[in-house]
């Protein structure tokens, strides 16, 4: 096969792909449907030209399409890694993890359901083994929901629904290919037909692939900072990653290469943005979008070209079998969507999905290039019998055509029939209100422009009058907005504020006033606020904003490391992250209050605008309280972070001034580059965040405590060896009523609240809490909760007794304190403000 001919045919395919995109838009079809149709026609035409008796002039070109230089293995190796990797890059990974349970269940259960439903339905009718029928089921279990997701976005479906569908499709391919490889091994004799062993092999391949992909991706992410300000090198490194992972997993690690690539893409997406600039990450995404477009289009059209060859010898009985496959696939998918999703909602593993959206998800189960490529690999497998290869190939290929021609062409009419393409009453009302305000502003701007450029009124007036008429028409149509209840308007305003918050976060990151460590948490919070606002209204907005201020599992784990293993650094890093997060939240909350006043209030009215302002102010107060609690404990660190913020803001303003002067030709390129270089050096020196010292050195904490202030250095060293420094967070329960007393705390800084059931007492620096249970041997009689961030010295029961024996003065003090608290607990005693009982 001559190389120039192959290159020319390849160029022709690229031209065809590019021209089909506008045609698909004009016809209202999914591009994949049109690609399959045209690819099939190219395949039919090539077979005709090769076999016709009328001319041999096109045989050289026809042979390229009839017997292409790429087999199934090459197609998978060339195209599949980058397709899977790019899909992983487009996911909002942190939001995906919130729904990882439903996504994993839907993806894995849907694949198994489709495999077994199709296999068992075909077995009585097909003249092949059950394993061969199951193999066909695994091949057609892979879905291609790109068109469905795009339609969801167009009609404004909940973002969470789109994430579940995208996540399901990604893991769906991985699970289906793992099952396909296992069944193919059983069919060819390389694996034993043992259900338990097959299940273990599936788990080993799936989990092993996830681990290998994650580890290798972390190594590649660590290399990104070396290529700082070299976006082309960064893209090149990212392009190598999926191929390295695929080959390593498939040829050496003996785990699922598909799962490994998906895992690598998720890890790269999770940690990559914090290693390079926002501009470079956007550039990387744009390049990958282009690469994925080429790959997905080429793999689809190449596979479609082979369809005429794959369905050769199609018999009438095959039509019956094809309908059995279609019916079984539809039933299995319906059971997952209509049976599993309600169960997930019932057990609070996800929000409910409307019947209309479930119907679209069901009908959107189209199959695509992966199914065709797997079918092609079966047709080329030498160890399979011709009967099995033909059976699987024909039905898999026919099913792909069926889904594309039936589901693909009827999906948009179904959307219109269900009314999902129309704006909701709430959005329709908002449209008119917004349009009226926007057109009035545009009219004023056009008038001002005409005056500034001295355009005659006879020319300008017709243009401005057009906008005036449109504004009046929009105002008349916006009467529906006036009929909306305040609750609906509040939801509209909060959704707009949530979207604005995401914009502000990205803007701050672009201006380098938000660090790379903090950006991910801010974006995840903004996304969660938007989703809960859409589903639960004002209550959802408040719920999501408060959840963001809570201490998460990773913080509690870091506390455990500090308390049990005396490892302080993870806690210090997370506490510094929280400090920075809260300071940026304060800035953004102020910007949202201003945005509501200038932009949202005119849209929703003064009464609703006031409600929105109260909601924002309450959220800002929560943020300020959280900041004040940290600032009281670490005032110097707070000052350092705010100083860093101001310096980064100054650098941004300075950079903007230099760029503007250069664009206006006030300074030349050499002077600009020199100034910009100096600024980059200063910014690089200021980039790193200062380290937070938790102040948990035992001797320093002992010196802060009044009971130990007068002890000698030698005595302090002896006591320090018995003490365990402990860091407590606001609201943390330190002791519980009724539990066994095995620990006492000396408060070095901060304050705690002791609740006995009848009294509430506050203890602070210099006080002791929890000693009564150790002295009396009885269960604790009070709950003890940290009021703010506290630095405590913990002492076990045995160490406490040893300490009292070694320190007579301390023993005497504890005896007095015990006597006072016992008298306080007497029925006729009144509570004392400086004592507690636990």
UniProtKB/TrEMBL annotation:
Superkingdom in the source lineage: Bacteria
Region ranges (Disordered): 815-838
UniProtKB keywords: Cell membrane, Ion transport, Membrane, Sodium, Sodium transport, Transmembrane, Transmembrane helix, Transport
Location of this chain's protein in the cell: Cell membrane
GO molecular function: potassium:proton antiporter activity; sodium:proton antiporter activity
CDD domains per the UniProt record, alphabetical: CAP_ED (cd00038)
InterPro entries, per the entry: Cation/H_exchanger_CPA1, Cation/H_exchanger_TM, cNMP-bd_CS, cNMP-bd_dom, cNMP-bd_dom_sf, RmlC-like_jellyroll
Listed transmembrane segments: 5-24, 31-50, 103-123, 129-150, 170-189, 201-223, 230-249, 255-271, 291-307, 319-347, 359-376, 388-407
Gene3D superfamilies reported for this sequence: 6.10.140.1330, Jelly Rolls
Signal peptide: none
UniProt xrefs under PROSITE patterns: CNMP_BINDING_2, CNMP_BINDING_3
Location of the Cyclic nucleotide-binding domain: 707-811
One Gene Ontology biological process: sodium ion import across plasma membrane
Membrane topology term: Multi-pass membrane protein
GO CC entries: plasma membrane
Alphabetical list of SMART domains matching this protein: cNMP
PANTHER family (UniProt xref): SODIUM/HYDROGEN EXCHANGER, SODIUM_HYDROGEN EXCHANGER 7
Protein name: Cyclic nucleotide-binding domain-containing protein
Organism of derivation: Roseibium aggregatum
């Amino acid at each position: 096969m001559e190389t120039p001919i192959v290159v020319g045919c390849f160029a022709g395919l690229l031209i065809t792909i590019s021209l089909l995109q506008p045609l698909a838009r004009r016809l209202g079809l999914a591009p994949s449907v049109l690609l399959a149709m045209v690819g099939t026609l190219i395949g039919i035409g090539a077979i005709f030209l090769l076999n016709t008796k009328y001319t041999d002039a096109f045989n050289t070109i026809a042979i390229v399409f009839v017997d292409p230089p790429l087999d199934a293995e090459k197609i998978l190796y060339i195209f599949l890694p980058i397709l899977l990797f790019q899909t992983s890059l487009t996911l909002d990974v942190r939001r995906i993890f919130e729904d990882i349970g439903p996504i994993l269940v839907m993806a894995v259960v849907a694949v198994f359901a489709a495999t077994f439903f199709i296999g068992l339905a075909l077995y009585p009718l097909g003249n092949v083994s059950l394993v061969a029928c199951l193999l066909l089921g695994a091949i057609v279990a892979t879905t291609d929901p790109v068109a469905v997701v795009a339609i969801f976005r167009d009609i404004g479906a909940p973002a969470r629904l789109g994430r579940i569908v995208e996540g399901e499709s990604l893991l769906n391919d991985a699970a289906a290919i793992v099952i396909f490889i296992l069944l193919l091994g059983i069919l060819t004799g390389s694996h034993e037909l043992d259900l338990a062993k097959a299940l273990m092999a599936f788990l080993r391949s799936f989990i092993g692939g996830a681990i290998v992909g994650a580890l290798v991706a972390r190594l590649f992410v660590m290399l990104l900072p070396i290529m700082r300000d070299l976006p082309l090198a960064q893209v090149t490194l990212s392009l190598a990653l999926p191929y390295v992972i695929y080959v390593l997993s498939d040829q050496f690690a003996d785990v699922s290469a598909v799962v490994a690539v998906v895992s690598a893409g998720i890890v790269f997406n999770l940690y990559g943005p914090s290693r390079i600039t926002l501009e470079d990450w956007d550039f990387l995404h744009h390049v990958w979008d282009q690469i994925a477009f080429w790959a997905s289009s080429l793999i689809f059209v190449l596979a479609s070209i082979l369809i005429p060859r794959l369905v050769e010898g199609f018999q009438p009985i095959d039509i019956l079998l094809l309908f059995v496959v279609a019916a079984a696939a539809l039933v299995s998918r319906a059971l997952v969507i209509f049976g599993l999703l309600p169960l997930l909602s019932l057990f609070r593993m996800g929000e409910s999905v409307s019947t209309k959206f479930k119907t679209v998800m069901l009908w959107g189960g189209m199959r695509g290039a992966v199914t065709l490529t797997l079918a092609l690999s079966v047709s080329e497998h030498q160890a399979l019998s011709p009967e099995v290869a033909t059976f699987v190939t024909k039905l898999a290929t026919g099913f792909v055509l069926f889904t594309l021609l039936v589901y693909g062409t009827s999906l948009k009419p179904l959307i219109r029939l269900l009314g999902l393409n129309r704006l909701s009453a709430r959005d329709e009302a908002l449209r008119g209100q917004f349009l009226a305000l926007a057109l009035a502003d545009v009219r004023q701007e056009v008038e001002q422009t005409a005056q500034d450029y001295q355009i005659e009124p006879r020319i300008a007036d017709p243009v401005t009058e057009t906008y005036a008429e449109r504004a009046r028409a929009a105002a008349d149509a916006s009467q529906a907005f006036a009929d909306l209840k305040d609750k609906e308007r509040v939801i509209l305003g909060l959704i707009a504020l949530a979207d604005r918050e995401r914009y502000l976060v990205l803007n701050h990151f672009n201006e380098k006033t938000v660090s790379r460590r903090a950006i991910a948490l801010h974006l995840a919070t903004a996304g969660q606020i938007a989703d809960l606002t859409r589903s639960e209204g004002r209550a959802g907005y408040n719920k999501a904003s408060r959840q963001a201020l809570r201490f998460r599992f990773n913080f509690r784990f870091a506390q455990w490391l500090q308390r049990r293993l005396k490892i302080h650094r993870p806690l210090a890093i997370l506490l510094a992250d929280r400090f920075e997060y809260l300071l940026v939240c304060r800035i953004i909350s102020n910007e949202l209050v201003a945005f509501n006043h200038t932009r949202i209030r005119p849209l929703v009215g003064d009464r609703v605008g006031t409600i929105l302002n109260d909601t924002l102010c309450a959220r800002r107060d929560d943020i300020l309280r959280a900041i004040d609690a940290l600032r009281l404990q670490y005032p110097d660190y707070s000052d350092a972070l705010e100083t860093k913020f101001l310096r980064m803001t100054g650098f941004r303003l300075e950079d903007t001034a230099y760029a503007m002067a250069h664009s206006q030709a006030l300074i030349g390129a050499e002077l600009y580059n020199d100034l910009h270089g100096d600024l980059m050096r200063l910014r690089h020196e200021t980039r790193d965040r200062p380290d937070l010292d938790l102040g948990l050195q035992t001797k320093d904490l002992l010196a802060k405590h009044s009971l130990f202030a007068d002890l000698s250095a030698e005595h302090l060293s002896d006591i320090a060896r018995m003490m365990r420094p402990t860091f407590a967070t606001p609201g943390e329960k330190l002791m519980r009523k009724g539990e066994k007393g095995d620990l006492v705390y000396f408060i070095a800084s901060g304050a705690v609240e002791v609740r006995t059931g009848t009294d509430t007492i506050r203890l602070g620096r210099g006080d002791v809490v929890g000693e009564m249970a150790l002295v009396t041997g009885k269960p604790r009689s009070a709950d003890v909760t940290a009021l703010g961030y506290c630095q405590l010295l913990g002492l076990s029961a045995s160490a406490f007794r040893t300490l009292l024996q070694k320190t007579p003065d301390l023993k005497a003090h504890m005896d007095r304190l015990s006597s006072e608290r016992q008298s306080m607990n007497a029925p006729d005693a009144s509570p004392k403000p400086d004592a507690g009982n636990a």
